[in-house]
């Protein structure tokens, strides 16, 4: 990944260019909260917004983008099909519902939110139709391990362009980074700051002091230097702005390895093989 500034992009395997830095809006309340967050982000130079039908804020996301003075084609918008809507017909219906809520003609990226076992192949068949129709310029998956990705690649006709997984210093999953790199599938991380749990880590604090940066900024810079698209979420203007101030320093290879060494396979979310039980117990 060639890291330049907040306007930098990576090229997906279908040729589409995608910003490597964006705003996640998980748990941002629909209406003023998510609209304000997006306004702060766009003002700070962000051009990538990541939402999902499950977040229940697609209407606010679409409204904020329409009300901005930035052309739609300059903003990269992602949404996702939720578990209950998967399967062939359900997925085709789900994207139409998302587009209606967003009041958009297309998504830049559409993802399978979780790999529902019995319908994964059929859901991907619908994703391929969505891609061919132009309703999504790129398609991919979230929350997968190797065997789920293998199923898609072996049974589908279009290779995923991106995999979005939980990714932070305590959950590197180097095997999945390598898997995607070998197949030219872009990796993207959610929960890059481990829901705040990583911010008091002494290793990261020491590195942050050296560069006069926050621990969050160090982690987000580490994401990019690992070749991972990052989408930190916040609704606070100062934090949204600070999260993007990561292009005036560079971690050394030793510092990247120090952060890598914090990995202990600790998750804040569900494991891709057990998410059905996780959500059933919510």
From TrEMBL:
One of its GO terms (molecular function) is oxidoreductase activity, acting on the CH-OH group of donors, NAD or NADP as acceptor. Residues 27-263 form the NADP-dependent oxidoreductase domain. It comes from the Bacteria. Keywords: NADP, Oxidoreductase. Gene3D superfamilies: NADP-dependent oxidoreductase domain. The active site is at 55 (proton donor). Substrate binds at residue 113. The keyword NADP applies. Coiled coil: none annotated. The record marks 80 as: Lowers pKa of active site Tyr. Belongs to the aldo/keto reductase family. This is Aldo/keto reductase. It comes from Zunongwangia atlantica 22II14-10F7.
């Amino acid at each position: 990944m060639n890291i330049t500034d907040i306007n930098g992009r990576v090229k997906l395997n279908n040729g589409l260019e995608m910003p490597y830095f964006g705003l996640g809006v998980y748990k941002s309340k629909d209406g003023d909260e998510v609209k304000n967050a997006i306004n702060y982000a766009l003002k700070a130079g962000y051009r990538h917004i990541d939402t999902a039908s499950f977040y229940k804020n697609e209407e606010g996301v679409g409204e904020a983008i329409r009300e901005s003075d930035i052309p739609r084609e300059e903003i990269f918008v992602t949404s996702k099909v939720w578990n209950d809507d998967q399967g062939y017909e359900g997925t085709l219906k789900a994207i139409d519902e998302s587009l209606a809520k967003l009041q958009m003609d297309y998504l830049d990226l559409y993802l399978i939110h979780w790999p529902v076992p019995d319908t994964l192949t059929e859901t991907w068949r619908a994703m391929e139709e969505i891609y061919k129709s132009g309703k999504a310029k790129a398609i991919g998956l979230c929350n997968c391990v190797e065997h789920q990705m293998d199923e898609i690649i072996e049974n589908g006709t279009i290779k995923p362009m991106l995999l979005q997984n939980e990714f932070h210093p305590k959950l590197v999953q180097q095997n999945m980074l390598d898997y995607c790199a070998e197949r030219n599938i872009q990796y993207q991380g959610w929960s890059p700051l481990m829901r705040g749990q990583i911010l008091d880590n002494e290793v990261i604090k020491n590195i942050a002091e050296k560069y006069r940066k926050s621990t969050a900024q160090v982690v987000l810079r580490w994401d990019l230097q690992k070749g991972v698209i990052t989408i930190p979420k916040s609704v606070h203007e100062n934090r949204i702005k600070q999260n993007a101030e990561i292009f005036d320093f560079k971690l050394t290879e030793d510092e990247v390895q120090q952060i890598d060494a914090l990995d202990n396979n600790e998750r804040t979310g569900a494991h891709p093989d057990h998410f059905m039980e996780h959500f059933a117990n919510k």
